[in-house]
Amino acid sequence: MHSINRTVSYHSRLNSGFLLSGDNSKKPSRKYMDYLCLRTLCCKGPPTPRPEYDVVCIGLTGSGKTSLLSRLCSEAADNIVPTTGFSIKAVPFQNAILNVKELGGADSIKKYWSRYYQGSQGVVFVLDSASSEEDMEVARTELHAALQHPQLCTLPFLILANHQDKPAARSVQEIKKFFELEPLARGKRWILEGSMVENMDAVKESFAQLIRLLEEKDQDIGRI
């Protein structure tokens, strides 16, 4: 009988994942493992780009918008001044980048907020939970107007009850009741969380929730 040729080429043995030292050997060789490592290093492409979302950030002067955004961008906190017009910051997170357009909260600027709403995919509203009753009323009026604005009413909202570390700060439940959020925002995607610059981990988690809402909205649009 003719003998069976058992010779296997080096290349084919690499592709099969084994270098045969005998008919029954199935142990991967060192050369093959080195080959795999080299191929992994050479063929590894650039990291997957993070999605970017355009977000508008509004709130009255003194609510703490600028401080929170500056801390999220790891900027120095000793030279922070209130935004007098508007500023744009690219705020990086693990799975997304938020291009946040922060609008100043002075009376002379609030009336122009709506001019900067176009193109927004989400909204961050920051309020001073320890402010006076009068300022709370103004903040409620502005939030209601934003929630009902044609360019914002279908967008995800993150509402931050800031300055929770102040003695006079109202709780999140008190804010929810005072701002009448349950009936007003029914059917909308919104989040209400307490915040303070001394606990940026909690602030980052609040923004992570907003990013999840933005991702869900993207998926909903993709299914249409």
Short description, anyone?
Belongs to the small GTPase superfamily. Arf family. The chain is of the alpha/beta class and 224 residues long.
What does this 3D model show about the protein?
It is a single chain. Helix content is 38%, strand content 17%. It is built from eight helices and six strands. It has helices spanning 10-16, 30-43, 65-72, 107-110, 133-148, 172-178, 181-184, 200-223, and strands spanning 52-58, 86-92, 97-103, 122-128, 157-162, 190-194. The longest helix has 24 residues, at 200-223. Residues 1-25 have low confidence and may be disordered. The chain has two domains: 10-43, no CATH class; 52-223, 3-Layer(aba) Sandwich (Rossmann fold).
Notable characteristics:
Small_GTPase_ARF/SAR, 2 domains, alpha/beta, 224 residues, 8 helices, GTP binding, disordered N terminus, 6-stranded mixed beta sheet, Rossmann fold, metal-binding
Give the percentage of residues in beta strands: 15-25%
Helix percentage range: 25-40%
Strand tally: 6
How many domains make up the coordinates? 2
CATH architecture of the largest domain: 3-Layer(aba) Sandwich
List the strand order in the largest sheet: 2-3-1-4-5-6
> How many angstroms separate the termini?
68 Å
Order of helices and strands: HHEHEEHEHEHHEH
GO molecular function: GTP binding; GTPase activity; metal ion binding
Keywords: GTP-binding, Magnesium, Metal-binding, Nucleotide-binding
InterPro entries: ARL15, P-loop_NTPase, Small_GTPase_ARF/SAR
Organism: Triplophysa tibetana
